[in-house]
Amino acid sequence: MEDTKPFTTYRQQLRILRSRGLEVPTDGKAKRALKRIGYYTLINGYKHLFLARDTHGNVIHPEKFIPGSSFKEILALYNLDKELRSILYDGLLAYETTLGAQISYCFSMKYPEKHSYLAMDNFSSNPNKLPHILKTISSLSSTINRKASERRDNAIKHYVNKHRHVPLWVLVNFLTFGDLNYFYSNCTEDVKVDIAKYFSIKRRHEYGLIKIPSLTTDVIETINHLVNHFRNAVAHNEITYSKYLYKSAKLKSIK
Predict the structure, then answer these.
(1) Which residue(s) pair with 23 in the sheet?
(2) Are 39 and 22 in contact, with CB atoms under 8 Å apart?
(3) What number of other Cβ atoms are within 10 A of residue 58's Cβ?
(4) How many whole angstroms separate alpha carbon 117 and alpha carbon 126?
(5) C or N terminus of the chain, fewer CB within 10 Å?
(6) Which has the higher per-residue pLDDT, 170 or 237?
(7) Would you say 39 and 13 are in contact if contact means Cβ atoms under 8 Å apart?
(8) Which CA distances in Å does 161 have to 71, 95, 113, 170, 209?
(9) Is the entire prediction scored with pTM above 0.90?
(10) What is the pLDDT of residues 5-53, one digit of tens each?
């Protein structure tokens, strides 16, 4: 079988781009950018806005760049997206931290017993959620076992060895956002309501308004879904500026 994607040197890559009509500087900056970022990540990831299209809006093949398009513009779009991911990451991480703090506080206040988060009776009584609840409990238990078995010291290992118990407010710091998302989704309605109340109060304080509608538990689940989606995208350096979600029937509106 013929190799349709053979290895090409940096010079060959730049020659290909010029042959397709892209303006490429000759001062060495383009070559250094390819070395630092990679052709696939930079060009294949961010070329689409600059490709010539037919009257139906479809990309012309073989690919040609819109006249006047430049390597500098593609690099600028990449840098813009990189900065966007950085901004989003700060906000997403702040939300993740707050969600973990409120889950641990509200759940532990309702169920203060040791290892209460490993008891299925302390979660939703909805029979449809049972498989998800068991999965959540299994994930929490696995996290404790894995961290307690590590050679290096960590908070979970300390609490297991010294107290034979890991409080939820310690455990949440070792959970992924996906774990926190499922945990919230599987909580009893009263725990969810308490968490939603906190975010409603926080929202009013941040905007300085009294009449902002309260956030419902469904809205919090929607926010968690969105945050989880973009959190994964940002963490894996996916293209972010053009990312969007298809709204399913289960995805509630946020006002």
Answers:
(1) 70
(2) no
(3) 9
(4) 17
(5) N
(6) 170
(7) yes
(8) 57, 31, 19, 14, 47
(9) no
(10) 789 999 999 999 999 999 999 899 999 999 999 999 999 999 999 999 9
